[in-house]
Design a protein that fits this description.
This protein is α+β, with helices and mostly antiparallel strands and about 450 residues long. It folds into three domains: about 90 residues, PAS domain (Beta-Lactamase); about 170 residues, GAF domain (Beta-Lactamase, 2-Layer Sandwich), CATH 3.30.450; about 140 residues, Reverse transcriptase/Diguanylate cyclase domain (Alpha-Beta Plaits, 2-Layer Sandwich), CATH 3.30.70. Helices cover about 45% and strands about 25% of the residues. It holds the Pfam family GGDEF.
């Protein structure tokens, strides 16, 4: 059958005859109208000038008889179903309108893909939540977050920035992808100030967001990024940023996923810091911040068993009168002042603790007794100085007892402390404001 006969032109489908070279030798009116080209402008041209195969086609491409999906060469939202039939040395293509079907199938594919991504991301969020619960340190948690976000977005790398306890900010996991061109505080500020996920798809987008970001991205070879703040109950912990060295766009689920991962990480960070505060409170004195008696005895046991040491038992002279005359707040200020003076007088590595009430203990590793004498005299001199809080109107002085446990001593920590305590009472009985050494 010739495709330019009246019967062929009356068919509600397209008919196109192709030579072996792929050139069109004949076409009917339906095809001419569908491609928007007159018949005399179609013959002699390649079919590829009018129809192209759809990407991600649900049917096989140009193999076999079909059917397969092809799109209008210029208007890719218009589609046809094409089947191939052999007619002698030529091929005859039967072409039927399929734009609505194609759009429906495309939408279905998109929905399936979205559902698959949603399931995968939900599994990632659940797995990450479990992993966060096992993290015992902030560094470990940051490493989990960096790994999870890099996998979630298929990023080349992710970096986690955290505010430290001392107020500074630093990288907790990952590396500085911008090579030091922007500091941690600036990068955290991208998301912590607006408290929202930020998506950057090119360096121009980055420069619009923050001066210097675009140029830093370009210099570092970063093509895109996504960043989210780590905040929980009005506390800002920092941010994570996933970096891409390739072109990247983000779907509608990118921001909610980032919020979920960042929110879980921030909650886990809050828990870790609460646990750290509770652990610190259990082993440190609230007034002075020094180790308490429990931590002193634990750490001192290790020191006594390992090396020679001197124990200084310090009791403030006349402290009760400070509380009685000016109140406990004044007494607490004095205790805090004493703690600072003791820390000033010891060496790095020496242990200073509040034993209870107005009693303090200093543990020093020593190689010979003369070192203990030097440290004790320096501490007594510091304590005799003028008080830093004159509202107490009370000069500081102390009675100090010193006990030495030589290397290889069989004494336990409790015994050494007891000997230093007894020496302190001898110093106080002798009038206070002096040093007494334990008797062998």
């Amino acid at each position: 059958m010739r495709v330019d006969e009246d019967g062929a032109n009356a068919l509600p489908v397209g008919l196109v005859r192709l030579r072996r070279s792929g050139e069109i030798s004949e076409a009917n009116r339906w095809f001419s109208e569908w491609v928007g080209t007159a018949l005399d402008g179609i013959v002699g041209r390649s079919i590829d000038e009018f129809l192209v195969h759809a990407q991600e086609d649900l049917f096989p491409a140009d193999v076999g008889p079909g059917p397969w999906v092809m799109l209008h060469a210029r208007e890719h939202d218009r589609a046809v179903m094409v089947s191939r039939h052999r007619d002698g040395a030529d091929d005859v293509l039967v072409i039927a309108e399929a734009s609505e079907r194609f759009r429906a199938l495309t939408d279905l594919r998109r929905r399936y893909a979205l559902a698959d991504r949603t399931r995968t991301r939900l599994e990632l969020v659940m797995d990450t939540s479990v992993a966060f619960s096992t993290a015992s340190t902030e560094e470990h948690l940051a490493e989990i977050l960096a790994d999870s976000t890099a996998r979630a977005y298929r990023a080349e790398e992710s970096t986690v920035y955290l505010h430290e306890q001392d107020g500074t900010s630093a990288i907790a996991a990952g590396r500085d992808a911008l090579g030091g061109r922007l500091d941690a505080d600036s990068l955290i500020g991208l998301v912590s100030e607006p408290r929202q996920v930020v998506k950057v798809v090119d360096d121009e987008d980055g420069e619009r967001l923050m001066t210097g970001l675009g140029s830093a991205m370009k210099a570092a070879g970063i093509r895109a990024l996504i960043a989210a703040p780590l905040h929980h109950e009005e506390i800002d912990f920092g941010a994570f940023i996933s970096w891409f060295h390739h072109e990247r766009t983000f779907d509608d689920e990118a921001a909610p996923l980032a919020e979920a991962l960042a929110g879980q990480a921030a909650q886990a960070l809050a828990t870790l810091r609460l646990q750290a505060r509770l652990a610190h409170a259990a082993t440190h004195d609230e007034v002075t911040g020094l180790p308490n008696r429990r931590l002193l005895e634990t750490q001192m046991g290790e020191i006594v068993s390992a090396t020679g040491c001197a124990v200084l038992f310090i009791d403030l002279d006349g402290f009760k009168s400070v509380n009685d005359r000016w109140g406990h707040q004044a007494g607490d200020r004095m205790l805090h002042d004493v703690a600072q003076r003791l820390l000033t007088g010891v060496r790095a590595g020496d242990l200073v603790a509040r034993y209870g009430g107005d009693e303090f203990v200093v543990v020093c590793q020593i190689s010979e007794p003369s070192v203990a004498v030097e440290i004790t005299e320096r501490i007594l001199t510091l304590l005799r100085g003028d008080p830093t809080r004159p509202s107490t109107h009370q000069p500081l002085s102390a009675s100090i007892g010193v006990a030495i446990a030589p290397p290889g001593s069989e004494l336990v920590a409790e015994q050494v402390i007891r000997r230093a305590d007894l020496a302190m009472y001898r110093a106080k009985t002798a009038g206070g404001n002096r040093i007494a050494f334990a008797e062998d």
